[in-house]
Amino acid sequence: MCNHSVSALNKVVRGSKRATYEKDTVYQILDDTFMCNIGYVWENNAIVIPTAYGRDKDIIYIHGSLKNRMMRGILETGKVCLSITHLDGLVLARSAFHHSANYRSVNVFGSVREVQDADEKMKALECIMNHMVAGHWESVRKPNKKEFDATLVIAVTIDTASAKIRAEGVIDEKSDMNSDYWAGVVPIKQVAGRPESDEKLAKGIVIPDSVLTYVANNR
Amino acid sequence: MCNHSVSALNKVVRGSKRATYEKDTVYQILDDTFMCNIGYVWENNAIVIPTAYGRDKDIIYIHGSLKNRMMRGILETGKVCLSITHLDGLVLARSAFHHSANYRSVNVFGSVREVQDADEKMKALECIMNHMVAGHWESVRKPNKKEFDATLVIAVTIDTASAKIRAEGVIDEKSDMNSDYWAGVVPIKQVAGRPESDEKLAKGIVIPDSVLTYVANNR
């Protein structure tokens, strides 16, 4: 079992029994979605911006416009916090106090560098797309020089991270167990609907397997 | 039409035609979910933490343990950034470059104060719960003194905010329109499953209407 290092920055203090620093768990939570929230400091303000990402081992890739303030901002400070949360359920207790949620969340604290090597940059773009829809890179027109040059790619090396998971039923006070209040869990998940093909599609073009598989795996 | 003020902090520069500062739009996006990402500055690091919230006019309430680092941190700095994102679809273009997502997102920049007035505090707890499941406050045991005192409630007054919305189909280069690549949108949504009643429920207790309505509205 391989763990991320623990410091005051990433140590989970509240609800610490739900915390883990195990790399495989952190990676699995990161791989189960493709949207993260980036936190960065701008003129003493914390700003949070959602963005897509891909992961390759301990590197997370994000991309954006050359002039994107968030992207420029994290390059300037050299560091970033990424937050990912899967909401898995509402935990509705008998008591207001014990209401909770089932979730899997990760906080990543990382170092930031611009990806300038053309090979790594193209691989990073492939990584981000395939992280969203596995294998879809093979079904699209690749970036031409103008598009490639207009895209800023940033590599975030995971310096440390923590995960927090709640995956259980209601926990109520013993004294409430025989009360008349209902308690239970409402499962929550994110699902994909039927793909809506572009109306202007050339004739005879079918939905690629990558998309069909994505939808089948997210019903 | 009533707008939030626009400054360098909240002005959307990239993709500005998708931006709005209209209060009704911002409020609607805030009211369509109950989990936000809180950004705050801790020892020069931006940290992002997911948490539940409720909204009452231009105030957002959050709650947590008295010792919660995020809660203590934002009280110390006096300000906070809240980010909310609904992912509505994957926009899969013919070209890698024009891939995008449909989404509704809001960034709130607010001032922070601890809610100390007991009446406001109890109303804030009701607001947070009813924001998650409308009307559910009437179906739970209310906090007793010990629980009430152990809960820290923070009011975030919305100083300014911005929303960004993408809700359209694929936009590709004209030169790609007759290519052999597929393009389309995969709708994404968050859904609720069938409520799972606690096994230890006292006999004869039925699922409250608030929960049934929530599930019916989130299928």
Identify the overall geometry of chain A: globular
Strand content of chain A: 35-45%
Helical fraction of chain A: 10-25%
- Could you tell me the CATH topology label of chain A: Pnp Oxidase, Chain A
Q: Are there runs of chain A of 5+ residues with pLDDT below 50, and where?
A: none
CATH class designation of chain A = Mainly Beta
**What's the oligomerization state?**
homodimer
Summary keywords:
homodimer, Pnp Oxidase, Chain A, 219 residues, alpha+beta, globular, 5 helices
Can you offer a commentary on this structure?
The structure is a homodimer of 219-residue chains. With 219 residues, chain A is α+β, with helices and mostly antiparallel strands. Chain A has one domain: Pnp Oxidase, Chain A, CATH 2.30.110. The first copy, chain A, has five helices and ten strands. In chain A, strands 1, 2, 3, 4, 5, 6, 7, 8 and 9 form a nine-stranded antiparallel β-sheet that branches. In chain A, a hairpin with a 7-residue loop joins strand 6 and strand 7. The radius of gyration of chain A is 21 Å and the shape is globular. The first copy, chain A, starts with 18 loop residues before the first strand and ends with a helix. The relative contact order of chain A is 0.20. The interface between A and B is large, with 95 and 95 residues. Strand 9 of chain A pairs antiparallel with strand 9 of chain B, so a sheet runs across the interface. Chains A, B: Keywords: Oxidoreductase. Chains A, B: It comes from Aquimarina hainanensis. Chains A, B: This is Pyridoxamine 5'-phosphate oxidase family protein. Chains A, B: Pfam families: Pyridox_ox_2 (PF12900). Chains A, B: GO terms for molecular function: oxidoreductase activity.
